[in-house]
Amino acid sequence: MLLKWLVLVASVTLISAGSSPERIVGGYPVPISEVPWQAGLLYLGKFICGAVIYSEKIIITAAHCVDNPFDTLYSVKVGSVWKTLGGQHARVAVIRKHEDYLSAAILFNDIAVMRLVDSLIFNADVRPIPLADSAPAAGAEASVSGWGEIGILWLQPLSLLKTSVKILDPNVCKRSYQYITETMICAAALGRDACRGDSGGPLVSGGQLVGIVSYGIGCANPFFPGVYANVAVLKPWILNAIKQL
């Protein structure tokens, strides 16, 4: 059992979205107005992860995306399909990671919230998205977006990509990953997936945020679906953490 756990940790460490800029596999370009809640997370001005707009001053991302020191060295970019150009840029004031998040190698409770120094200006290209109260049923359609790798020679797009996936039954997901918990939700589709660099980005179903890109083994691997932080289960923590920022 210990050996299996160590193998899993090693595999996740290699492909977790925060370890390097990640990707959407099997995606297609979309205007930012189609996913106006999409944000890019930067550290020292360099793109590292995706993120999601919750309000004018609150951004949600994966905890493993904010493991670097000094909160104020992070910033976000919104309102543009380009990875580093255009849109609005805002500095981060403070970040709060889930207390039970351990590390990028053990991705339980992979969720974080951050408060911006200045408020975002909402328009057709910059909008928040509501948090889901319950996880979608297995088989429900969902979408994921980001600037991560596209699964070909580690290529990364300059423009935002989006793709569709389907929510998986947790028991099905556990056949691939033994350590799936209630704070995780899985989604997959043949040839379509989030990838390295998409971490922290949105999994959306029914117009609500249902997941945050967390990890997977490979990209669009038919034997290993994408794993996301389960927003519905983590919603009480998210709302409480926002109050404390």
From TrEMBL:
Cleaved signal peptide residues: 1-17
Principal localisation: secreted
Q: Tell me which EC number(s) this protein carries.
A: 3.4.21.4
Q: Which GO terms describe its cellular component?
A: extracellular region
Protein name (Swiss-Prot/TrEMBL): trypsin
Instruction: Cite the Peptidase S1 domain residue spans from the record.
Output: 24-243
| Cross-referenced InterPro entries | Peptidase_S1, Peptidase_S1_PA, Peptidase_S1_PA_chymotrypsin, Peptidase_S1A, Trypsin_dom, TRYPSIN_HIS, TRYPSIN_SER
Question: So what family is this one in?
Answer: Belongs to the peptidase S1 family.
One of the Pfam families matching this protein, by short name: Trypsin
SMART domains to which the protein is assigned, alphabetical? Tryp_SPc (SM00020)
Q: Where in the cell is it found?
A: Secreted, Extracellular space
- At the top of the EC hierarchy, this enzyme's class is hydrolase
Cite the source lineage: Eukaryota, Metazoa, Ecdysozoa, Arthropoda, Hexapoda
GO annotation, biological process: protein processing
Q: Which reaction does it catalyse?
A: Preferential cleavage: Arg-|-Xaa, Lys-|-Xaa
Alphabetized GO MF terms: serine-type endopeptidase activity
Q: What is the organism field in this record?
A: Drosophila simulans (Fruit fly)
Q: Which UniProt keywords apply?
A: Disulfide bond, Hydrolase, Protease, Secreted, Serine protease, Signal, Zymogen
